[in-house]
Design brief:
- The complex is a heterodimer of chains A (229) and B (390).
- In chain A, 32% of the residues lie in helices and 28% in strands.
- Chain A is built from 7 helices and 10 strands.
- Chain A has helices spanning 50-58, 80-90, 106-117, 125-132, 148-160, 178-194, 206-209; strands at residues 8-19, 22-34, 39-43, 65-70, 73-74, 91-94, 166-170, 198-202, 214-219, 222-228.
- Chain A has a 6-stranded mixed β-sheet with strand order 6-7-8-3-9-10, sandwiched between helices. In chain A, strands 2-1-4-5 form a 4-stranded antiparallel β-sheet, with helices on one face.
- Chain A starts with 7 loop residues before the first strand and ends with a strand.
- Chain B has 390 residues and is α+β, with helices and mostly antiparallel strands.
- Helix content of chain B is 57%, strand content 14%.
- Chain B contains 13 helices and 11 strands.
- Chain B has helices spanning 3-13, 15-53, 65-74, 84-91, 125-128, 151-157, 195-201, 221-228, 239-282, 284-292, 297-337, 351-378, 382-389; strands spanning 57-61, 82-83, 96-108, 115-121, 146-149, 164-165, 174-179, 191-194, 207-208, 210-215, 234-238.
- Chain B is elongated.
- The chains are: A alpha/beta (229), B alpha+beta (390).
Chain lengths: 229, 390
Protein backbone atom coordinates (compact mmCIF):
# COMPACT_ATOMS: atom_id res chain seq x y z
CA UNK A 1 0.00 0.00 0.00
CA UNK A 2 1.38 3.39 -0.96
CA UNK A 3 1.00 6.30 1.40
CA UNK A 4 0.04 9.29 -0.77
CA UNK A 5 1.45 11.89 1.67
CA UNK A 6 5.23 11.68 2.15
CA UNK A 7 6.52 12.59 5.58
CA UNK A 8 9.56 14.12 3.86
CA UNK A 9 9.62 15.60 0.37
CA UNK A 10 12.81 17.01 -1.12
CA UNK A 11 12.59 18.74 -4.51
CA UNK A 12 15.52 20.01 -6.55
CA UNK A 13 17.72 20.30 -3.50
CA UNK A 14 21.25 21.58 -3.93
CA UNK A 15 24.00 21.88 -1.37
CA UNK A 16 27.19 23.72 -2.23
CA UNK A 17 30.05 24.59 0.05
CA UNK A 18 33.41 26.17 -0.37
CA UNK A 19 36.73 24.50 0.16
CA UNK A 20 39.31 27.24 -0.31
CA UNK A 21 38.59 28.81 -3.69
CA UNK A 22 36.81 25.72 -4.92
CA UNK A 23 33.03 25.24 -4.79
CA UNK A 24 32.03 21.70 -3.93
CA UNK A 25 28.63 20.56 -5.19
CA UNK A 26 27.75 18.10 -2.43
CA UNK A 27 24.13 17.70 -3.52
CA UNK A 28 22.75 18.34 -6.97
CA UNK A 29 19.10 18.31 -7.83
CA UNK A 30 18.27 15.81 -5.09
CA UNK A 31 14.68 14.73 -5.30
CA UNK A 32 13.16 12.19 -2.95
CA UNK A 33 9.94 11.36 -1.14
CA UNK A 34 10.08 9.48 2.15
CA UNK A 35 7.00 7.89 3.67
CA UNK A 36 6.13 7.02 7.22
CA UNK A 37 7.49 3.57 8.06
CA UNK A 38 10.17 3.58 5.37
CA UNK A 39 13.47 1.94 6.17
CA UNK A 40 15.86 3.38 3.62
CA UNK A 41 19.51 2.58 3.07
CA UNK A 42 21.54 5.34 1.41
CA UNK A 43 24.51 3.85 -0.39
CA UNK A 44 27.38 5.21 -2.38
CA UNK A 45 31.09 5.82 -2.34
CA UNK A 46 32.68 8.29 0.07
CA UNK A 47 31.86 11.82 -1.13
CA UNK A 48 28.78 10.67 -3.04
CA UNK A 49 26.56 12.96 -0.92
CA UNK A 50 24.69 10.44 1.24
CA UNK A 51 25.80 11.99 4.54
CA UNK A 52 25.10 15.49 3.22
CA UNK A 53 21.61 14.40 2.23
CA UNK A 54 20.96 12.91 5.67
CA UNK A 55 22.34 16.06 7.33
CA UNK A 56 20.03 18.26 5.29
CA UNK A 57 17.05 16.00 6.05
CA UNK A 58 17.90 15.93 9.77
CA UNK A 59 18.37 19.70 9.97
CA UNK A 60 22.02 19.43 10.91
CA UNK A 61 22.87 21.29 7.71
CA UNK A 62 20.91 23.60 5.38
CA UNK A 63 20.40 23.18 1.66
CA UNK A 64 21.68 25.93 -0.63
CA UNK A 65 18.68 25.75 -2.91
CA UNK A 66 15.50 23.73 -3.24
CA UNK A 67 12.41 22.80 -1.33
CA UNK A 68 12.19 20.66 1.80
CA UNK A 69 8.73 19.74 3.02
CA UNK A 70 8.54 18.05 6.40
CA UNK A 71 5.04 16.70 7.07
CA UNK A 72 3.79 19.19 4.48
CA UNK A 73 5.53 22.24 5.92
CA UNK A 74 8.36 24.04 4.14
CA UNK A 75 11.30 23.96 6.54
CA UNK A 76 14.23 24.85 4.29
CA UNK A 77 14.19 28.47 5.40
CA UNK A 78 13.91 27.74 9.12
CA UNK A 79 16.33 29.45 11.47
CA UNK A 80 18.59 27.39 13.80
CA UNK A 81 16.28 28.34 16.67
CA UNK A 82 13.29 26.76 14.89
CA UNK A 83 15.34 23.76 13.90
CA UNK A 84 16.07 23.05 17.58
CA UNK A 85 12.36 22.37 18.08
CA UNK A 86 12.06 20.46 14.78
CA UNK A 87 14.98 18.19 15.73
CA UNK A 88 13.51 17.53 19.19
CA UNK A 89 10.12 16.60 17.77
CA UNK A 90 10.99 14.74 14.60
CA UNK A 91 14.44 13.24 14.67
CA UNK A 92 16.69 10.85 16.52
CA UNK A 93 20.33 10.61 15.46
CA UNK A 94 22.82 7.78 15.61
CA UNK A 95 26.44 8.61 14.86
CA UNK A 96 29.23 6.38 13.67
CA UNK A 97 31.35 7.22 16.73
CA UNK A 98 28.52 6.79 19.28
CA UNK A 99 29.30 10.11 21.05
CA UNK A 100 28.33 8.94 24.51
CA UNK A 101 29.38 11.15 27.42
CA UNK A 102 32.04 9.12 29.23
CA UNK A 103 31.24 10.34 32.77
CA UNK A 104 27.50 9.63 32.46
CA UNK A 105 26.06 6.17 32.94
CA UNK A 106 24.14 4.39 30.18
CA UNK A 107 20.85 5.50 31.78
CA UNK A 108 22.00 9.12 32.06
CA UNK A 109 23.27 9.19 28.47
CA UNK A 110 19.91 7.95 27.26
CA UNK A 111 18.17 10.58 29.38
CA UNK A 112 19.94 13.53 27.70
CA UNK A 113 17.36 14.19 24.93
CA UNK A 114 14.58 14.16 27.57
CA UNK A 115 16.47 16.76 29.58
CA UNK A 116 16.83 19.00 26.55
CA UNK A 117 13.24 18.50 25.41
CA UNK A 118 11.86 19.00 28.93
CA UNK A 119 10.20 15.58 28.72
CA UNK A 120 11.56 14.11 31.90
CA UNK A 121 8.24 12.48 32.59
CA UNK A 122 9.33 9.92 29.99
CA UNK A 123 12.26 8.87 32.17
CA UNK A 124 10.46 5.75 33.32
CA UNK A 125 10.68 4.44 29.75
CA UNK A 126 14.48 4.25 29.92
CA UNK A 127 14.78 0.84 31.69
CA UNK A 128 12.10 -0.62 29.40
CA UNK A 129 13.80 0.54 26.22
CA UNK A 130 17.25 -0.48 27.41
CA UNK A 131 15.90 -3.91 28.35
CA UNK A 132 14.22 -4.17 24.94
CA UNK A 133 17.55 -3.61 23.19
CA UNK A 134 19.40 -5.98 25.49
CA UNK A 135 21.03 -3.49 27.85
CA UNK A 136 18.76 -3.94 30.86
CA UNK A 137 21.72 -5.11 32.94
CA UNK A 138 23.93 -2.15 31.89
CA UNK A 139 21.83 0.77 33.18
CA UNK A 140 24.39 2.03 35.65
CA UNK A 141 27.51 1.20 33.69
CA UNK A 142 29.79 3.83 32.20
CA UNK A 143 30.45 3.79 28.43
CA UNK A 144 34.04 2.68 29.10
CA UNK A 145 32.61 -0.56 30.55
CA UNK A 146 30.66 -1.38 27.36
CA UNK A 147 31.59 -3.13 24.11
CA UNK A 148 31.32 -1.28 20.77
CA UNK A 149 27.99 -2.94 19.99
CA UNK A 150 26.62 -2.05 23.42
CA UNK A 151 27.74 1.56 23.01
CA UNK A 152 25.96 1.82 19.67
CA UNK A 153 22.82 0.25 21.15
CA UNK A 154 22.98 2.82 23.94
CA UNK A 155 23.25 5.52 21.28
CA UNK A 156 20.18 4.06 19.54
CA UNK A 157 18.23 4.03 22.81
CA UNK A 158 19.23 7.68 23.27
CA UNK A 159 18.05 8.45 19.73
CA UNK A 160 14.57 6.98 20.22
CA UNK A 161 13.84 7.75 23.88
CA UNK A 162 11.85 10.91 23.05
CA UNK A 163 9.66 9.05 20.52
CA UNK A 164 10.90 10.67 17.29
CA UNK A 165 9.06 9.55 14.16
CA UNK A 166 12.32 9.53 12.15
CA UNK A 167 15.67 7.96 13.02
CA UNK A 168 18.72 9.10 11.09
CA UNK A 169 21.76 6.87 11.27
CA UNK A 170 24.93 7.88 9.47
CA UNK A 171 27.07 4.77 9.01
CA UNK A 172 26.06 3.36 12.39
CA UNK A 173 27.96 0.14 11.84
CA UNK A 174 31.14 1.78 10.57
CA UNK A 175 32.99 1.13 13.80
CA UNK A 176 31.52 -2.31 14.53
CA UNK A 177 32.41 -5.88 13.63
CA UNK A 178 30.03 -7.87 11.42
CA UNK A 179 28.25 -9.61 14.32
CA UNK A 180 27.49 -6.34 16.06
CA UNK A 181 26.63 -4.68 12.74
CA UNK A 182 24.04 -7.38 12.05
CA UNK A 183 22.66 -7.01 15.55
CA UNK A 184 22.27 -3.24 15.07
CA UNK A 185 20.40 -3.73 11.80
CA UNK A 186 18.13 -6.30 13.42
CA UNK A 187 17.41 -3.71 16.07
CA UNK A 188 16.60 -1.13 13.38
CA UNK A 189 14.25 -3.62 11.72
CA UNK A 190 12.52 -4.24 15.00
CA UNK A 191 12.15 -0.50 15.70
CA UNK A 192 10.85 0.03 12.18
CA UNK A 193 8.39 -2.82 12.41
CA UNK A 194 7.24 -2.58 16.03
CA UNK A 195 7.41 1.18 16.61
CA UNK A 196 6.72 2.39 13.07
CA UNK A 197 9.87 4.53 13.17
CA UNK A 198 11.02 5.77 9.77
CA UNK A 199 14.70 4.92 9.48
CA UNK A 200 17.16 6.63 7.15
CA UNK A 201 20.54 4.96 7.23
CA UNK A 202 23.75 5.60 5.33
CA UNK A 203 25.84 2.46 4.87
CA UNK A 204 28.52 0.91 2.71
CA UNK A 205 27.40 -2.64 3.51
CA UNK A 206 25.36 -4.27 0.73
CA UNK A 207 24.26 -7.18 2.88
CA UNK A 208 22.88 -4.92 5.57
CA UNK A 209 21.24 -2.64 3.00
CA UNK A 210 19.31 -5.62 1.69
CA UNK A 211 17.42 -5.69 5.00
CA UNK A 212 15.97 -2.22 4.26
CA UNK A 213 12.70 -1.59 2.45
CA UNK A 214 14.31 0.82 -0.01
CA UNK A 215 17.85 1.41 -1.22
CA UNK A 216 18.89 4.80 -2.57
CA UNK A 217 22.16 4.84 -4.52
CA UNK A 218 24.00 8.14 -4.69
CA UNK A 219 26.80 9.30 -6.95
CA UNK A 220 28.45 12.72 -7.22
CA UNK A 221 25.77 14.40 -5.14
CA UNK A 222 22.84 13.08 -7.10
CA UNK A 223 20.31 10.35 -6.42
CA UNK A 224 21.43 7.98 -9.10
CA UNK A 225 19.25 4.95 -8.63
CA UNK A 226 16.56 3.74 -6.26
CA UNK A 227 15.32 0.25 -5.63
CA UNK A 228 12.86 -1.47 -3.30
CA UNK A 229 13.34 -4.79 -1.49
CA UNK B 1 19.13 13.94 35.82
CA UNK B 2 19.33 17.69 36.04
CA UNK B 3 21.67 20.23 34.43
CA UNK B 4 23.48 20.26 37.76
CA UNK B 5 24.31 16.53 37.43
CA UNK B 6 25.52 17.14 33.90
CA UNK B 7 27.72 20.01 35.13
CA UNK B 8 29.15 17.84 37.92
CA UNK B 9 29.83 15.04 35.43
CA UNK B 10 31.70 17.48 33.19
CA UNK B 11 33.71 18.83 36.10
CA UNK B 12 34.59 15.31 37.22
CA UNK B 13 35.71 14.41 33.73
CA UNK B 14 38.56 16.92 33.87
CA UNK B 15 39.37 16.81 37.55
CA UNK B 16 42.74 18.55 37.30
CA UNK B 17 41.41 21.36 35.16
CA UNK B 18 38.49 21.84 37.54
CA UNK B 19 40.84 21.76 40.54
CA UNK B 20 43.30 24.21 39.03
CA UNK B 21 40.54 26.58 37.90
CA UNK B 22 39.05 26.48 41.41
CA UNK B 23 42.48 27.21 42.89
CA UNK B 24 42.90 30.06 40.37
CA UNK B 25 39.59 31.57 41.45
CA UNK B 26 40.44 31.14 45.11
CA UNK B 27 43.80 32.89 44.55
CA UNK B 28 42.03 35.86 42.96
CA UNK B 29 39.44 35.96 45.74
CA UNK B 30 42.16 35.58 48.34
CA UNK B 31 43.95 38.66 46.98
CA UNK B 32 40.73 40.67 46.63
CA UNK B 33 39.17 39.65 49.95
CA UNK B 34 42.42 40.13 51.81
CA UNK B 35 42.92 43.65 50.48
CA UNK B 36 39.31 44.67 51.14
CA UNK B 37 39.11 43.24 54.68
CA UNK B 38 42.57 44.46 55.57
CA UNK B 39 41.99 47.91 54.18
CA UNK B 40 38.69 48.25 56.05
CA UNK B 41 40.14 46.72 59.21
CA UNK B 42 43.15 49.01 59.21
CA UNK B 43 41.00 52.13 58.81
CA UNK B 44 38.69 50.97 61.59
CA UNK B 45 41.59 50.14 63.89
CA UNK B 46 43.11 53.56 63.25
CA UNK B 47 39.77 55.23 63.92
CA UNK B 48 39.43 53.21 67.12
CA UNK B 49 42.90 54.33 68.18
CA UNK B 50 42.00 57.96 67.72
CA UNK B 51 38.68 57.53 69.46
CA UNK B 52 40.38 55.81 72.36
CA UNK B 53 42.93 58.65 72.54
CA UNK B 54 40.05 60.83 73.69
CA UNK B 55 41.90 64.04 72.99
CA UNK B 56 40.46 66.97 71.08
CA UNK B 57 43.73 68.82 70.76
CA UNK B 58 47.29 67.72 71.32
CA UNK B 59 50.06 70.11 72.31
CA UNK B 60 53.50 68.80 71.28
CA UNK B 61 57.02 70.23 71.01
CA UNK B 62 57.62 72.11 67.74
CA UNK B 63 58.68 69.74 64.97
CA UNK B 64 56.69 67.14 63.08
CA UNK B 65 53.26 67.12 64.69
CA UNK B 66 52.11 63.88 63.03
CA UNK B 67 55.17 61.99 64.17
CA UNK B 68 54.32 63.24 67.63
CA UNK B 69 50.73 62.03 67.27
CA UNK B 70 51.94 58.52 66.38
CA UNK B 71 54.36 58.81 69.27
CA UNK B 72 51.49 59.54 71.64
CA UNK B 73 49.51 56.64 70.22
CA UNK B 74 52.30 54.07 70.19
CA UNK B 75 55.29 55.44 72.04
CA UNK B 76 58.85 55.69 70.76
CA UNK B 77 61.65 58.18 71.29
CA UNK B 78 61.41 61.91 70.71
CA UNK B 79 64.26 64.16 71.69
CA UNK B 80 62.26 67.31 72.39
CA UNK B 81 60.09 67.83 75.47
CA UNK B 82 57.60 70.31 76.87
CA UNK B 83 58.19 72.03 80.20
CA UNK B 84 55.90 72.52 83.21
CA UNK B 85 55.77 76.22 82.33
CA UNK B 86 54.40 75.46 78.87
CA UNK B 87 51.93 73.06 80.49
CA UNK B 88 50.73 75.78 82.88
CA UNK B 89 50.30 78.16 79.92
CA UNK B 90 48.11 75.64 78.14
CA UNK B 91 46.12 74.75 81.24
CA UNK B 92 45.38 78.37 82.08
CA UNK B 93 43.74 79.06 78.73
CA UNK B 94 40.06 79.86 79.48
CA UNK B 95 38.75 77.49 76.79
CA UNK B 96 40.61 74.46 78.14
CA UNK B 97 38.62 72.07 80.31
CA UNK B 98 41.26 69.39 80.84
CA UNK B 99 44.97 69.60 80.08
CA UNK B 100 46.68 66.35 80.86
CA UNK B 101 50.47 66.03 80.65
CA UNK B 102 51.85 62.93 78.96
CA UNK B 103 55.38 61.62 79.31
CA UNK B 104 56.10 58.59 77.20
CA UNK B 105 59.05 56.25 77.08
CA UNK B 106 59.35 53.01 75.12
CA UNK B 107 61.08 50.07 76.82
CA UNK B 108 62.17 46.71 75.54
CA UNK B 109 62.78 43.55 77.51
CA UNK B 110 66.32 42.62 76.39
CA UNK B 111 65.61 38.91 76.91
CA UNK B 112 62.26 38.46 75.14
CA UNK B 113 62.50 41.64 72.97
CA UNK B 114 58.92 42.41 73.97
CA UNK B 115 58.17 46.12 73.92
CA UNK B 116 56.02 48.25 76.12
CA UNK B 117 55.43 51.94 76.62
CA UNK B 118 55.52 53.61 80.01
CA UNK B 119 53.13 56.53 80.27
CA UNK B 120 53.53 59.18 82.93
CA UNK B 121 50.15 60.83 83.44
CA UNK B 122 47.90 62.65 85.85
CA UNK B 123 44.78 60.79 87.02
CA UNK B 124 42.63 63.08 84.81
CA UNK B 125 44.12 61.29 81.80
CA UNK B 126 41.47 58.60 82.50
CA UNK B 127 38.73 61.20 81.95
CA UNK B 128 40.03 61.78 78.43
CA UNK B 129 39.87 58.09 77.59
CA UNK B 130 36.32 57.21 76.49
CA UNK B 131 36.85 53.47 76.93
CA UNK B 132 38.11 53.74 80.50
CA UNK B 133 36.29 54.29 83.76
CA UNK B 134 36.86 57.63 85.50
CA UNK B 135 37.94 55.79 88.64
CA UNK B 136 40.90 54.28 86.83
CA UNK B 137 44.43 55.73 87.05
CA UNK B 138 43.98 56.61 90.73
CA UNK B 139 47.28 56.41 92.61
CA UNK B 140 47.99 56.75 96.34
CA UNK B 141 50.05 59.93 95.79
CA UNK B 142 51.70 61.76 92.89
CA UNK B 143 55.09 60.13 93.32
CA UNK B 144 53.82 56.64 94.19
CA UNK B 145 55.76 53.68 92.75
CA UNK B 146 52.49 52.35 91.38
CA UNK B 147 51.04 51.66 87.97
CA UNK B 148 47.98 50.52 86.01
CA UNK B 149 48.68 48.09 83.20
CA UNK B 150 46.93 47.24 79.92
CA UNK B 151 44.92 44.03 79.74
CA UNK B 152 47.15 42.32 77.12
CA UNK B 153 50.29 43.00 79.10
CA UNK B 154 48.60 41.63 82.21
CA UNK B 155 47.66 38.49 80.28
CA UNK B 156 51.09 37.98 78.74
CA UNK B 157 52.96 38.49 82.03
CA UNK B 158 50.21 36.84 84.14
CA UNK B 159 49.90 39.88 86.37
CA UNK B 160 47.01 41.18 88.44
CA UNK B 161 46.27 44.01 90.84
CA UNK B 162 48.52 43.84 93.90
CA UNK B 163 51.39 42.17 92.04
CA UNK B 164 54.69 43.89 91.47
CA UNK B 165 55.67 44.66 87.89
CA UNK B 166 58.87 42.67 87.41
CA UNK B 167 61.94 44.77 86.48
CA UNK B 168 62.13 43.40 82.96
CA UNK B 169 61.60 46.71 81.12
CA UNK B 170 63.18 49.07 83.66
CA UNK B 171 64.88 48.43 87.00
CA UNK B 172 62.34 50.22 89.22
CA UNK B 173 59.65 47.97 90.68
CA UNK B 174 56.09 49.29 90.45
CA UNK B 175 53.11 47.92 92.32
CA UNK B 176 50.15 47.21 90.08
CA UNK B 177 47.08 49.11 91.29
CA UNK B 178 44.81 47.70 88.66
CA UNK B 179 44.40 46.21 85.17
CA UNK B 180 42.77 48.50 82.63
CA UNK B 181 39.77 47.28 80.63
CA UNK B 182 40.39 45.74 77.20
CA UNK B 183 40.13 48.42 74.48
CA UNK B 184 41.60 46.48 71.51
CA UNK B 185 44.01 49.37 70.99
CA UNK B 186 47.72 49.78 71.65
CA UNK B 187 46.81 50.94 75.18
CA UNK B 188 46.27 47.29 76.09
CA UNK B 189 50.06 46.78 75.96
CA UNK B 190 51.05 49.84 77.97
CA UNK B 191 51.92 50.78 81.56
CA UNK B 192 50.49 53.93 83.15
CA UNK B 193 52.18 55.47 86.20
CA UNK B 194 52.09 58.88 87.92
CA UNK B 195 53.85 61.59 85.89
CA UNK B 196 56.41 62.39 88.60
CA UNK B 197 57.29 58.69 89.03
CA UNK B 198 57.94 58.31 85.30
CA UNK B 199 59.92 61.59 85.21
CA UNK B 200 62.19 60.01 87.83
CA UNK B 201 62.46 56.66 86.02
CA UNK B 202 63.37 58.24 82.67
CA UNK B 203 65.35 61.06 84.31
CA UNK B 204 63.39 63.93 82.76
CA UNK B 205 62.39 66.03 85.78
CA UNK B 206 59.54 68.48 85.16
CA UNK B 207 59.26 67.44 81.54
CA UNK B 208 56.59 65.86 79.35
CA UNK B 209 56.32 64.90 75.68
CA UNK B 210 52.77 66.05 74.99
CA UNK B 211 49.68 67.58 76.54
CA UNK B 212 46.26 66.08 75.86
CA UNK B 213 43.63 68.81 75.78
CA UNK B 214 39.87 68.74 76.01
CA UNK B 215 37.98 71.99 75.55
CA UNK B 216 35.04 73.30 77.54
CA UNK B 217 31.69 72.73 75.90
CA UNK B 218 30.88 75.24 73.20
CA UNK B 219 34.46 76.43 72.79
CA UNK B 220 35.72 76.76 69.24
CA UNK B 221 38.57 74.41 68.31
CA UNK B 222 40.01 76.63 65.55
CA UNK B 223 40.21 79.75 67.67
CA UNK B 224 41.72 77.85 70.63
CA UNK B 225 44.35 76.23 68.41
CA UNK B 226 45.26 79.69 67.16
CA UNK B 227 45.61 81.03 70.72
CA UNK B 228 47.60 78.04 72.00
CA UNK B 229 49.93 78.14 68.99
CA UNK B 230 51.17 81.46 70.31
CA UNK B 231 52.91 79.66 73.21
CA UNK B 232 56.63 79.51 72.33
CA UNK B 233 57.99 76.14 71.05
CA UNK B 234 54.57 74.49 71.26
CA UNK B 235 52.78 73.05 68.26
CA UNK B 236 49.08 72.37 68.39
CA UNK B 237 47.46 69.55 66.43
CA UNK B 238 43.75 68.88 66.40
CA UNK B 239 42.45 65.32 66.63
CA UNK B 240 40.74 65.72 63.26
CA UNK B 241 43.86 67.05 61.51
CA UNK B 242 45.98 64.21 62.85
CA UNK B 243 43.37 61.60 61.98
CA UNK B 244 42.92 62.86 58.43
CA UNK B 245 46.65 63.13 57.83
CA UNK B 246 47.35 59.66 59.14
CA UNK B 247 44.41 58.29 57.20
CA UNK B 248 45.76 59.95 54.07
CA UNK B 249 49.17 58.40 54.64
CA UNK B 250 47.62 54.96 55.17
CA UNK B 251 45.30 55.46 52.21
CA UNK B 252 48.20 56.34 49.90
CA UNK B 253 50.03 53.14 50.85
CA UNK B 254 46.85 51.13 50.46
CA UNK B 255 46.18 52.68 47.07
CA UNK B 256 49.57 51.55 45.83
CA UNK B 257 48.96 48.08 47.21
CA UNK B 258 45.51 48.00 45.62
CA UNK B 259 46.89 48.90 42.19
CA UNK B 260 49.30 45.96 42.47
CA UNK B 261 46.50 43.66 43.61
CA UNK B 262 44.13 44.79 40.86
CA UNK B 263 46.84 44.08 38.33
CA UNK B 264 47.26 40.55 39.73
CA UNK B 265 43.47 40.10 39.79
CA UNK B 266 43.23 41.28 36.17
CA UNK B 267 45.84 38.76 35.02
CA UNK B 268 44.10 36.06 37.09
CA UNK B 269 40.69 36.83 35.58
CA UNK B 270 42.12 36.65 32.06
CA UNK B 271 43.63 33.27 32.99
CA UNK B 272 40.31 31.98 34.32
CA UNK B 273 38.45 33.25 31.25
CA UNK B 274 40.96 31.49 29.03
CA UNK B 275 40.61 28.22 30.98
CA UNK B 276 36.81 28.26 30.75
CA UNK B 277 37.01 29.22 27.08
CA UNK B 278 39.43 26.37 26.37
CA UNK B 279 37.14 23.96 28.24
CA UNK B 280 34.36 24.89 25.80
CA UNK B 281 36.64 24.68 22.77
CA UNK B 282 37.67 21.16 23.82
CA UNK B 283 34.03 20.17 23.91
CA UNK B 284 32.89 21.60 20.57
CA UNK B 285 32.14 18.15 19.14
CA UNK B 286 30.21 17.14 22.23
CA UNK B 287 28.27 20.40 22.12
CA UNK B 288 27.49 19.76 18.46
CA UNK B 289 26.26 16.29 19.38
CA UNK B 290 24.08 17.74 22.14
CA UNK B 291 22.59 20.21 19.69
CA UNK B 292 21.80 17.29 17.41
CA UNK B 293 20.06 15.66 20.39
CA UNK B 294 17.84 18.72 20.77
CA UNK B 295 19.82 21.05 23.02
CA UNK B 296 19.46 24.75 22.35
CA UNK B 297 22.34 27.19 22.70
CA UNK B 298 20.65 28.62 25.80
CA UNK B 299 20.46 25.18 27.42
CA UNK B 300 24.13 24.51 26.71
CA UNK B 301 25.08 27.97 27.99
CA UNK B 302 22.99 27.27 31.10
CA UNK B 303 24.94 24.04 31.67
CA UNK B 304 28.25 25.88 31.27
CA UNK B 305 26.91 28.62 33.55
CA UNK B 306 26.19 26.04 36.29
CA UNK B 307 29.69 24.60 35.92
CA UNK B 308 31.19 28.09 36.14
CA UNK B 309 29.04 29.03 39.15
CA UNK B 310 30.01 25.79 40.96
CA UNK B 311 33.70 26.44 40.36
CA UNK B 312 33.45 30.13 41.23
CA UNK B 313 31.40 29.64 44.40
CA UNK B 314 33.72 26.87 45.62
CA UNK B 315 36.78 28.94 44.71
CA UNK B 316 35.32 32.04 46.36
CA UNK B 317 34.62 30.39 49.69
CA UNK B 318 37.98 28.64 49.61
CA UNK B 319 39.63 31.97 48.79
CA UNK B 320 37.84 33.74 51.66
CA UNK B 321 38.87 31.05 54.13
CA UNK B 322 42.48 31.21 52.90
CA UNK B 323 42.33 35.02 53.09
CA UNK B 324 41.34 34.77 56.74
CA UNK B 325 44.45 32.70 57.47
CA UNK B 326 46.60 34.95 55.29
CA UNK B 327 45.35 38.05 57.12
CA UNK B 328 46.41 36.58 60.43
CA UNK B 329 49.89 36.02 58.99
CA UNK B 330 50.08 39.51 57.46
CA UNK B 331 48.87 41.01 60.71
CA UNK B 332 51.62 39.28 62.68
CA UNK B 333 54.20 40.22 60.08
CA UNK B 334 53.00 43.83 60.00
CA UNK B 335 53.14 44.09 63.75
CA UNK B 336 56.71 42.79 63.79
CA UNK B 337 57.75 45.20 61.01
CA UNK B 338 55.66 48.32 61.69
CA UNK B 339 55.80 49.48 65.26
CA UNK B 340 53.12 52.12 64.57
CA UNK B 341 50.49 49.62 63.41
CA UNK B 342 47.20 50.22 65.23
CA UNK B 343 46.21 47.91 68.06
CA UNK B 344 43.33 45.43 67.90
CA UNK B 345 42.42 43.33 64.85
CA UNK B 346 43.68 44.78 61.59
CA UNK B 347 41.32 42.90 59.30
CA UNK B 348 37.59 43.46 59.43
CA UNK B 349 35.04 40.93 58.15
CA UNK B 350 31.53 42.11 57.50
CA UNK B 351 28.57 40.74 55.58
CA UNK B 352 29.02 43.68 53.21
CA UNK B 353 32.60 42.61 52.49
CA UNK B 354 31.54 39.01 51.87
CA UNK B 355 28.71 40.22 49.65
CA UNK B 356 31.09 42.54 47.80
CA UNK B 357 33.53 39.66 47.25
CA UNK B 358 30.77 37.34 46.02
CA UNK B 359 29.52 40.10 43.69
CA UNK B 360 33.06 40.49 42.42
CA UNK B 361 33.12 36.73 41.75
CA UNK B 362 29.81 36.91 39.91
CA UNK B 363 31.37 39.59 37.70
CA UNK B 364 34.36 37.29 37.06
CA UNK B 365 31.92 34.47 36.28
CA UNK B 366 29.86 36.58 33.90
CA UNK B 367 32.99 37.88 32.21
CA UNK B 368 34.29 34.32 31.92
CA UNK B 369 31.23 32.94 30.18
CA UNK B 370 30.57 35.75 27.70
CA UNK B 371 32.98 34.38 25.09
CA UNK B 372 31.96 30.71 25.65
CA UNK B 373 28.28 31.64 25.28
CA UNK B 374 29.01 33.39 21.98
CA UNK B 375 31.08 30.37 20.94
CA UNK B 376 28.29 27.93 21.84
CA UNK B 377 25.88 29.98 19.73
CA UNK B 378 28.15 29.43 16.72
CA UNK B 379 28.69 25.69 17.22
CA UNK B 380 26.88 23.71 14.56
CA UNK B 381 25.42 20.26 15.29
CA UNK B 382 27.18 19.26 12.09
CA UNK B 383 30.52 19.50 13.93
CA UNK B 384 29.81 16.25 15.73
CA UNK B 385 29.33 14.45 12.45
CA UNK B 386 32.13 16.15 10.56
CA UNK B 387 34.56 14.89 13.17
CA UNK B 388 33.31 11.37 12.53
CA UNK B 389 34.44 11.64 8.93
CA UNK B 390 37.81 13.20 9.68
Amino acid sequence: MTNPNPIIRLQEVYKNYHRGNETVHALQNADISIYKGDFIAFMGASGSGKSTLLNVIGGLDRCTKGSYLLDGSEVSGFSEKKWVYVRRKWFGYVFQSFHLIPTLTVKENVELPLLFAGKQSLRERIPTILTEIGLGHRLHHLPSQLSGGEMQRTAIARAIIHNPPILIADEPTGNLDSTNATMIFQLFQSLNKNHQITILCATHDNELAKQCSRIVHMKDGTIWEESSN
Amino acid sequence: MRYYSLAVANMKRRKWRTFLTTIGISAIVLAFFSVVTFSEGYQRALKQEFTSLGIQILAVPKGCPYEMTIFVLHGGYIEKSLTMEQFQNVKSHPAVSIASPILIQKFEDPTSHKETVLYGVYPDFAILKPLWDKSELIFSHEEAMECWIGSNLAEVLSLKAGDTLPPIFFKEELTIVGVLPKTRTADDQFIFAPLKTVQKIVNLPDQMKAIGIQLKEGEKVGATIEDLSAIPDVQIVSYRQAEYTLNDLVQSTQNLLQIAIWFIVFIGVIGIMNTIFMAIEDRRREMGMMKALGASSIQLAYGIGIETVCIIVTGSFLGMILAWFLNQGIENLLRSLVSNAPGGTLSYYSLETIFLTLSFCVVIGLASIIIPVVTIQKISPLEAIQDDKS
